Amino acid sequence: MTAQNPDAEALRRLLSGRATCRAYQPRQVPEDVIRSIVDVARGTASWCNTQPWGLTITSGESTEKFRTALMEQVRQHPGLESDFPFPDEYKGVYLDRRRKAGFQLYEVLGIARGDKERREAQSFENFRLFGAPHVAIVTVPQELGTYGAVDAGGFVCSFLLSAQAHGVATTPQAALAMQSRFIRRYFGMLEDRRVICGISFGYADTAHPVNGYRTERAGVDDILKLV
Ligand SMILES: Cc1cc2nc3c(=O)[nH]c(=O)nc-3n(C[C@H](O)[C@H](O)[C@H](O)COP(=O)(O)O)c2cc1C
Question: Is residue 151 assigned to a domain?
Answer without folding.
Answer: yes
